[in-house]
Amino acid sequence: MRADPIERVLRGLYSAALYLLLPATLYHLVWRGFRQGEYLLRWNERYAVYDPVEEPVDVWVHAVSMGEVNAAAPLVNALRARHPGLRLLVTSITPTGSARVRALWGDGVEHVYLPYDLPGAVSRFLRHFRPRRALVLETELWPNLLFGCRDHGIPAWIVNARLSARSLRGYGLLRPLLRRALRTLRGVLAQSPADARRFVQLGADPVGTTVAGNLKFDIAIAEGGDELSAELRARIGARPSWIAASTHPGEEAAVLEIHRQLRRRWPELLLLWAPRHPERFRGVAQQAIEAGWRVATRTLTRWPDAEDAVFVVDTMGELVSFYGCAQVAFVGGSLEDIGGHNLLEPAAVGTAAVSGPHLHNFADIAARMKAAGALRVGADADAVAMHLGELLGDAQARAAMVAAGLALVGEGRGALSRTLALVDPAPGAG
Q1: Angle at which helices 143-151 and 119-129 pack, to 10 degrees?
Q2: Which one, 21, 195, 339, 350, has the greatest CB density within 10 A?
Q3: For the chain, what is the largest distance between any 2 Cα atoms, rounded to a whole number of angstroms?
Q4: 77 burial class (0-12, 13-18, 19+ CB within 10 angstroms)?
Q5: Distance from C-alpha of 389 to C-alpha of 394, rounded to nearest angstrom
């Protein structure tokens, strides 16, 4: 399919706007770099400047950040197991995503940052790596990237595709361009019927839009994760514990106050605290110290001891294992208008889950978990504290939620096999 005149005009306007904003990308990298030093590194990849061309990669997977990399992990692992000689490229945008790629696969896959969606950068990226197929995770809808795949003859799919009602409304003026970009795809493999409907509304081909399910249901515990959980449970002993996971700066004061309230009833209660972003590791530890508690961290002490009130999980890739050590979990990004984070992770390891009300990024999963009795949602921080307290004090209620969560995760598995059936390279590829 060749570009029509309207597409050329729309792409030209979109690309011109991006070039005008190009100085802002430098400002963004520097500004983020003051908070997280990794943003000051590897700028050549952001603008698609590479060493000499290598052999083409067989499959390119794009996962914007850590959550999407985790979602892609079952798919990447399955492709590597099926085709040991397959050359895989995994791109991300954030340093946390990059760190997670390296933690999961080391040098077993190639990794670079995805360049900005500038026509020249996209073309250099595709010419350099020459992927034989492209798998883009979830909601990464970059028009020049999708058009570039078509123009370079690269079959592309959106896999584990999700599109919230808010995101659909937010595309606004870009919708005519995105409609054409989506029609370049071989398929959209949606997480849910609602996601599929919204992609079709945005312009995806109804024939090529399939409900494959959510890869997050096919979660697997990282190697050594069970041993980590068992070791920490042994060290905690009979102490009650809860985990505040993937929290954002606007939720930190609420976590501290909730812990203060809960410790009035359980003076030995341990908080396992895993901030979403590495730049907040030191900050939350300092806040807990200033609140008057003894604090330990994963990197400094490895394990909490009997006198610690807060244990900060300041490492990457261990969250699921730490979920398995707590009686109840608060999943962050939900008290602030972030949209929530992966609610299936605590459910998959047998931990009762509580969240705040902002769950638009996980609306389908949240609805299914609530209906099954595997999730409690608080309207605000006080309600979250109430749910956490009730569950800490009621082992029977926790057990019911755990059973419901494990059953739901088990029933939801299968997205991986359905996705592989549609996107797996032919035997012998690579």
Answers
A1: 50
A2: 195
A3: 69
A4: middle
A5: 9
Give the up-direction half-sphere exposure of residue 400: CA atoms within 13 A in the CB hemisphere: 9
Nearest to 327 by CA among 278, 254, 262: 262
Per-residue pLDDT 10s for the chain (430 aa) are 566 888 999 999 999 999 999 999 998 999 988 888 889 999 999 999 998 867 899 999 999 998 899 899 999 999 999 999 899 999 999 998 999 999 899 999 999 999 999 999 999 999 999 999 999 999 889 999 999 999 999 999 999 999 998 899 999 889 999 999 999 999 999 999 999 999 999 999 999 999 999 999 988 766 556 888 888 888 988 899 999 999 999 999 999 999 999 999 999 999 999 999 888 999 999 999 999 999 999 999 999 999 999 999 999 888 999 999 999 999 999 999 999 999 999 999 999 999 999 999 888 899 999 999 999 999 999 999 999 999 999 999 999 999 999 999 999 899 999 999 999 865 444 4
Residues with catalytic annotation?
68
φ and ψ of 12, to 5 deg: -65, -45
CB 381 within 8 A of CB 257: yes
Distance CA 52, CA 34 (A): 31
CA dist 148 and 140 (Å) reads: 14
Backbone Cα Rg of the chain: 22
DSSP-H helix ranges across 344-394: 344-348, 363-372, 381-392
**Closest CA relative to residue 357, chosen from 391, 328, 387, 327:** 387
All structural domains of the chain, each given as residue ranges with its CATH number in brackets, are 42-213+414-423 (3.40.50.11720), 225-412 (3.40.50.2000)
For residue 323, the SS3 value is helix
Torsions phi, psi for 353 (to 5 deg): -120, 140
CA distance 77 to 80: 5
Closest CA to 365 of 182, 181, 138, 49: 138
